[in-house]
Amino acid sequence: MRTSHTTTQPLALLFKWTTSRAYGTEGWNICSLWIHDKKEADTCGGGYDMKGTALGYFIEEHYQDRLLKLHRRAGSRVSIAPEGSPAAKAGKAYKHLKTKARKNRPTWDTHGELYGLTAYYKRGESKPYKMSMDGGCGFSCMVDIGRAVGLSFRYQYEKTNEILYIMTDKRAEA
After folding, report:
1. Helix, strand, or coil here: 139?
2. Please, are residues 17 and 53 in contact by the beta-carbon 8 Å criterion?
3. Can you say whether the dihedral through the CA atoms of 21, 25, 28, 34 is positive or negative?
4. Helix, strand and coil in the chain, % to nearest 5
5. Looking at residue 105, what DSSP letter applies?
6. Secondary structure (3-state) at 58
7. Are β-strands 114-122 and 94-97 bridged in parallel, bridged antiparallel, or unpaired?
8. Which of its termini does the chain have fewer beta carbons within 10 Å around, N or C?
9. Is the distance from CB of 87 to CB of 44 less than 8 angstroms?
10. pTM for this prediction
């Protein structure tokens, strides 16, 4: 895991859009997240929320310890059987776990409250070993998850190929 960006100083999150010139992806859109003149995350292609995906990659990489504490609120939960187990050999290594019903939620809603967040459990264990974020479901979902781990986001400006947000870590130690 990379060094954490937990700091009392606000961070400038600069999202930049460019076009790929690489072989095999030439002409594809690229969305990159820059912090302190360093590229922290990027994604390419289109047809999904690229800004949300870049932010999701960043939060997942730098705030995994806090995300693990949100496992009961995850939008989806997956149990994974050990390699070589009968379930894995039968092609049933991954099993989606049901989310408990909550008050004031429609009965058809099977997702947890943090859509885009997935908890991965080893079969038979109650605490996850990893959390992942699917930013393709939307930037607003990633901001909601970020807020749940103590981050705040403030929109600053937008230009033709870039958007700037200021992120503050409310839980960082002074």
Report:
1. helix
2. no
3. negative
4. 20, 35, 40
5. S
6. helix
7. unpaired
8. C
9. no
10. 0.84
